[in-house]
Structure formats: C-alpha cells, structure tokens
Design a protein that fits this description.
single chain, alpha/beta, Rossmann fold, 5-stranded parallel sheet, 9 helices, globular, EC 2.7.1.24
Length: 209
C-alpha cells in the first residue's frame, strides 16, 4: 500500500485533487465524512460535544446543529481546541480502520487520506507522501463567496482559524499550486500520479535480487 496524506486550507482545491486521483485508481478516505459520522446521533462524541457546549448545539431531533456549533468555535480558538479534542480521536480511530480495510482489499492500493486538519490534528499516520494544495487567500475567499454563498468576513475567519500556509508547507513533500485554472491543477495531479508509480517501480527494481 502507498499512503498519501492530502491537505490544504479551506477552498484550496483538495476535493478536485482527490477526485482526479480517484479517477486514476486511488482509494479515497475523506476525513470530513468521517468527522460527520463520528458526531452522528447517538455517538459518544456527540454526547461529549453537548456536554462541553450546551444543548443549544443540538437541533430538535437531537442531531448536531453545525451552524450553531460553528458560530461558537470559529470565533473562539479555545472552544475550537475543545471541539477538536473530542472529534479528532474519534476520526483517527475510524481512519485507521478504513486504511486497514483498503490494504486488506488490495495490498498494492494507493490510498489518499484527504484530511484538511492534518497539521492541526497532528495526524501521524505513516504517510509515504504528504501533498499540500496551495492557493492564495484572495482566491480562496472568492471561491467561498461564489461557490458556497459565504460572507467574505466569515470566509476570512474560517481561513484564519486553520493552520497557516507556512505550517502546512513545512510538512509538505509535494505542493500543488491550485490558484490557477482547473486544467492547470489537473495537469499537476496527473504528473504526480505518474511520478508516484515511477517511484514505486524504481523502489521495486532496486530491491530485487
């Protein structure tokens, strides 16, 4: 198995990169999806969140009210840290299970773990490669306003609640510049895929007797 950690700031093109890698045959594990499952109705993590932040973060059906919780944590670094301390361990357990499942299904699989908070959560899976998507803040804010109908001020707050570009670049093995056109981003992903397979073949040749 070859394990890629894919990360980058909000609206920096991670989903586009992940989709293209899947088109090439990679197995995709989405940390955001796992985080939603981890705080689903009846889960221990949801109960801990309600205890920590009060019943106002639950809706009438007892599910998580993401807008209410987001209003609390994205303006308060301490609150965000408390939330992360609840959610991250649950997501880590689930991602471990998914990675093991992928390896059992195909020992030669290329697995892409798409994890926006790789830096913040101190994710330490044994990655073979860490890929960071990089776009300037102005571009990311524009995407969030145009594509997600988000207020520009809220978009800026979301960006600044995450790790800095410098922190992400410090852990990167590969940086994909995603501030240009879609075609330019996809070209970089295609080249990365070719390089991954060339590198694996080189290692196999060198290791052969």
């Amino acid at each position: 198995m070859y394990l890629i950690g894919l990360t980058g700031g909000i609206a920096s093109g991670k989903s586009t990169v992940a989709r293209q890698l899947v088109q090439h045959g990679a197995v995709h594990i989405d940390a955001d999806h796992l985080a939603r499952l981890a705080v689903g109705p009846g889960t221990p993590a949801l109960a801990q969140i309600a205890d920590a932040f009060g019943p106002g973060v639950l809706n009438a059906e007892g599910a998580l009210d993401r807008a209410a919780l987001g209003a609390l944590v994205f303006a308060d670094p301490d609150a965000l840290s408390r939330l992360n301390a609840i959610v991250h361990p649950a997501v880590r357990a689930m991602s471990n299970a998914r990675i093991r499942e992928a390896e059992r299904a195909d020992p030669e699989a290329v697995v892409v773990y798409d994890v926006p908070l790789l830096v913040e959560a101190a994710v330490d899976h044994p990655f073979d490669l860490v890929v960071v998507t990089q776009a300037d803040e102005e571009t990311r804010v524009r995407r969030m306003v145009d594509l997600r109908a988000m207020d520009a001020g809220e978009a800026e707050r979301r960006i600044r609640s995450q790790a800095s570009d410098a922190e992400r670049l410090a852990i990167a093995d590969v940086v994909l510049e995603t501030g240009g056109t879609l075609e330019q981003t996809l070209e970089q992903v295609d080249l990365l895929w070719e390089q991954i397979h060339a590198g694996r073949e080189d290692r196999t040749v060198r290791a052969a007797p």
